[in-house]
Every structure is written in C-alpha cells, then in structure tokens.
C-alpha cells in the first residue's frame, strides 16, 4: 500500500506537573504541494506528531492514497497549558508498506512550532512550510485548532444526606463532602470540598460549581469518589464513609440512580448487620458552557506584552561577575532568564511581536537625569523592540549606556502601561506587564494606588524578584490572600503575581528547567485574570477570525490584520 501520513511530537515540559489541563485542543492537519516520491502515482501521505522533552510519538494520522494535497480526518487532541511552552514537531511521510517502522517509508518533510503559535494565529489557523530535505521545496502544512466543547462546561450541583453516622460524643456529626477525580494510574486527586454543616445528621449542602474537566478531565465515565467526613476543630476529621459515581451518572440529575449509600469499609468488615452509614442524594444538577481563554484568543484578542527592568545601583556594577546584570559569555543572567522565560510564551499571542521595553532607576546620558520609565531602545517615540531577542538586545545595550542609580519606583511604569490599557477596553487587547527587580519598592504607596487603578483595566502585572534580597513587602501587592487597597479603595480584581526567581532555580544548574518552572508559575493566573476582566465588563468573545492565505514559500505565520493600535499609537504616552 502506498500512502501519506503525518506524525506529531509534543514536549512534556515539566515532569512535576500533575494539574488538570486548562482545556483540550483538537488539531486538524492538511498539507499542500507535497513532494511526489512515487514513480507511477502520487505520494501517499501520512502525518506523525511527536510531543516531547525527550521526543515521543504522540500520534499518527491515517494514510491518504495518491494525493499531494491531503486533508487528514484523524485529529490530534492535546492538553493545553497557557503557562507552558508546548513544542510540537510534525513529520510527514510517504507510506509505501504496512510497516509501522518509519525508516521503511519516504520522509517528505517536517515542521516545528508551539501549540501556542497555532492557537494564537488568526482564527487559530496556521500555515508553515515543510523543510528537512536539502534543496527541495517540501510544500506546506496547515493547522486549525478548536477547543473541545466539554472542556468549557461548568457543572452546578447540590447534594443532601440522610441518617449519617453520629461521630461526636456530645452532639451530632458536623459533616462535609470531599470529591476526588480518579487518575489513570488508579490514584485519586482532590477536586472539591463542600462547606461544613454543623451538628446535623441530615445536612443539605449549598449548591456548588465545578469545571467538568476538574471533575473528570473530559472522561464522563471516569470514577468520581466522594468521602464523607465529620469535621473536628483540630483537623483530625472522622471518616464517616464513601461512595463512588461518575460525571455521566450525576449528569442525569435527580433520580433513583443518584441516591448513594455511604459505606465505611472497616465497619462493613466488622459488623455482620452493617447496612450503611447513611445516604447521600443528588438534589439538583445543571451544566452550562462558559467562555474560555481560548475563545477570546480565537476571536482575535491580543496579549500586549511590556517589560520593565530594574536598573538601580543595588544590582551591582554590570562589568563585575557579582552583579545581577553581569553579561557572562557562557550563560544568561537572572534578568535575561526571567524575560526570556515569560516572553517566549506570551509572544505567541501577540501578532506583530513588537514589545515595549522600559528600564527604571537609572541616570540617563547625556545630562544624568534619573528616569523611572525610559525606553530600552532609547527611542522615546517608539519604545517597541522586535521580538524577545530585540528586547534582550536593547537591555544589553542599555547596560552599556546608562548609569545604575535609584530609587526603585514601580508606579511610573505601571501607570504608563495602564494609560495604554485604558484606551482599549473593548476586549480586543489585554496587557501583561513583566517587572523584574532586585529589591524592595521605594514608592509602595504610589504603586498600590497604581495597582488599584489598573485592576479595573484589561491588564495584569507579573513581578519577578531576582537576587538574595528579602521580598516580604512585595507580598502586599500579590492579592492572593488580601486584595490590594489604597486610600480606602480595594482593587476590583487580583492582577498582580509576585515570585522570587530563586525559588525556581534548578539545583543542577539547568537554566531551561529553571525558566520553565518560573514561567509555569507566573503565567498560570493570566487566563483567569483575562476572563475575570471580560466577565466583569460583559464582554463576549468575537467569532473566530478568518485566516488570511499565505504564500506557500513563506515560513512564518499567516499575515494578519491586527485589531490593536500601531506600535507608535500603542505607546504614544511613552
């Protein structure tokens, strides 16, 4: 048999990751103008996708006979994590035999990209040239990405219990429920905990809402285990019993099938007359579909990435190896690592790849004036740098021309980006500011006010602390526990994420792993922060944009019509 097949590979970025994916993405693949490797007929293409850090074969399409322009029916379904750089490689083969050994088939070309590039392209459609055969035009490969519908489903349910076992000596039990999702290896992961109902053997819990993916990871028949506990003040909660169900079962709603016996295995083994430790009944169930981060990206929402770097004297003389700004010929410094780790992921969601980059806390030539928001490229009209490499180049150049000084003022840069964000509040753009610093903020009161003002805008702030300083004061800005406030005003949303880089540095000195860990943590909140702004303003995702056709000889993403201001306009306040 003679046919074409495509294959794909994905990099499993952090082996420590055990989180539920943000969503599942279905990738459809087509090819155009493939090499003709058959003498008496057209090539028979097939596609392979490896997904890997150490490359492993993720999946293969079917083989399509006698065509140079295959549209593959079999899809690749991938877990999507915005905060990770998910590298893909697609290999295309001309299949001449039934052998699964790829060395037996003709290689037609390959293409490398990230999952973020596909999703972030106009309409989530990407066209790239195939390469890998010297001196040959291998044709093009086209992708379209779509979010699987069950990933956006949100389930709301309410349960009650009847005749639960009495566990407290001086009163009735104080019951609560703990839900666990089963994993493929037979273990269980906690996914929800109800409130405690005090002194009641027949409790009725409040309705609660949970993403379907968190409950079953898209597998409706996967076991869901529910433990029933009696709450104790000292944390040594008493186990009452357990029962199992599945998402498919609970989705039937209130019925005779959704009354569950609560069983305690120890009691069942000891007492012959043991029946159960009570029952739990599903009172109501409904499922709704929510807008997702991917919906907004597919509808054209752009992530505008801005960088601000600390140029205060506490960083040390850049020419000395002890400086945090030291430019070693052998490895990146912490500033460059943080910038590259975050920027290389966000850039996939910004179509023009022009990034404003600022420095703060330095004396500028020629008159030594102190600035807390100077463009790294020295262009006050257009502070944009082309690509992350352009930002790094401008950063290194600034180290050679400015004098490190102080103090460490954050508010000017936060306000600068906030002014840009205030001009575009229709959902077409969302601004992400990365600030990298070595020390404590000097203008905390002004920065808090700036953050409170920015919280009502389409904007998030990531602060990465580098070096050995104590960053305790920074936690005031990270509103995970207590929302930031200023002059009696509380921030509308939690938009700040602070982390010290030292917590993510790999002990073996692996910079790639250190950067991956950092990016994974600081970017994980961005999708929810974007959604919280859109929801607060009643903004719905726009329909997916149509992809523009690209020349087959082009090796970059399709040229798009951007909805964001031109670089000069985006930063005219600089």
Automatic annotation (TrEMBL):
The residues covered by the C2 domain are: 1-130, 137-260
Q: Which GO terms describe its molecular function?
A: calcium-dependent phospholipid binding; metal ion binding
The alphabetical list of record keywords is: Repeat
Transmembrane intervals? none
Comp. bias (Low complexity) = 549-563
Query: What GO biological process terms are annotated to this protein in UniProt?
Result: cellular response to calcium ion
Asked whether the UniProt record includes Transit peptide among its keywords, one would answer no
Show the GO cellular component annotation of the record.
plasma membrane
In residue numbers, the region (Disordered) covers 537-574
Domain (VWFA) ranges:
304-478
Family, as annotated = Belongs to the copine family.
Protein name as it appears in the record: Copine family member 9
Q: What is the species listed in this Swiss-Prot or TrEMBL entry? A: Gasterosteus aculeatus aculeatus
Recite the lineage of the species.
Eukaryota, Metazoa, Chordata, Craniata, Vertebrata
């Amino acid at each position: 048999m003679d046919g074409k097949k495509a294959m794909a590979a994905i990099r499993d970025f952090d082996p420590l990751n055990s989180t539920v994916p943000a969503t599942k993405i279905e990738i459809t693949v087509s090819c155009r103008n493939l090499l003709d490797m058959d003498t008496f007929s057209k090539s028979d293409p097939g596609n392979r996708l490896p997904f890997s850090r150490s490359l492993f074969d993720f999946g293969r399409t079917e083989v399509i006979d006698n065509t140079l322009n295959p549209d593959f029916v079999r899809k690749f379904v991938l877990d999507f994590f915005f905060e990770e750089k998910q590298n893909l490689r697609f290999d295309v083969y001309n299949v001449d035999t039934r052998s699964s050994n790829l060395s037996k088939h003709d290689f037609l070309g390959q293409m490398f990209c990230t999952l973020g590039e596909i999703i972030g392209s106009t309409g989530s459609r990407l066209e790239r040239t195939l390469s890998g055969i010297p001196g040959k035009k291998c044709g093009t490969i086209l992708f379209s990405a779509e979010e699987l519908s069950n990933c956006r489903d949100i389930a709301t349910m309410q349960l009650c219990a009847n005749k639960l076992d009495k566990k407290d000596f001086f009163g009735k039990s104080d019951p609560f429920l703990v839900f666990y999702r089963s994993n493929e290896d037979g273990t269980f992961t906690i996914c929800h905990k109800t409130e405690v109902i005090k002194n009641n053997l027949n409790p009725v819990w409040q309705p609660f809402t949970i993403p379907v993916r968190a409950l079953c990871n898209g597998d409706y028949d996967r076991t869901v285990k529910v433990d029933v506990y009696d709450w104790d003040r000292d944390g040594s909660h008493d186990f009452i019993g357990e029962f199992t169900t599945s998402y498919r079962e609970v989705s039937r709603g209130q019925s005779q099938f959704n009354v569950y016996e609560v069983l305690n295995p120890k009691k069942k083994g000891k007492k012959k007359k043991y029946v159960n430790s009570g029952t739990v009944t599903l009172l109501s169930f409904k499922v709704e579909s929510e807008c997702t981060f991917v919906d907004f990206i597919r509808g054209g929402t752009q992530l505008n990435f801005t960088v601000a770097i600390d140029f205060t004297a506490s960083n040390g003389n850049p020419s000395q190896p002890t400086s945090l700004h030291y430019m070693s010929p052998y490895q990146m410094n912490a500033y460059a690592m943080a910038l590259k780790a975050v920027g290389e992921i966000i850039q996939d969601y910004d179509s023009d790849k022009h990034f404003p980059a600022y420095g703060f806390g330095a004396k500028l030539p020629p008159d030594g004036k102190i600035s807390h928001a100077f463009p790294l490229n020295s262009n006050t009209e257009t502070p944009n740098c082309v690509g992350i490499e352009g930002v790094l180049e401008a950063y290194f150049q600034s180290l050679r021309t400015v004098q490190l000084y102080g103090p460490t003022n954050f508010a000017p840069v936060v306000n600068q980006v906030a002014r840009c964000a205030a001009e575009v509040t229709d959902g077409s753009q969302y601004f992400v500011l990365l600030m990298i610093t070595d020390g404590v903020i000097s203008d905390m009161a002004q920065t808090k006010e700036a953050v409170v003002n920015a919280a009502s805008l389409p904007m998030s702030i990531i602060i990465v602390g580098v070096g050995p300083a104590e960053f305790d004061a920074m936690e005031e800005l990270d509103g995970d526990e207590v929302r930031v406030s200023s002059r009696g005003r509380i921030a509308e949303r939690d938009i700040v994420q602070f982390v010290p880089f030292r917590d993510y540095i790999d002990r073996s000195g692996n910079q790639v792993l250190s950067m991956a860990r950092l990016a994974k943590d600081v970017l994980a909140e961005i999708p929810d922060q974007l959604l919280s702004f859109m929801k607060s303003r009643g903004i719905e995702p726009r329909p997916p944009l149509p992809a523009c056709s690209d020349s087959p000889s082009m090796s970059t993403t399709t040229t798009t019509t951007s909805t964001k201001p031109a670089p000069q306009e985006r930063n005219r306040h600089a």
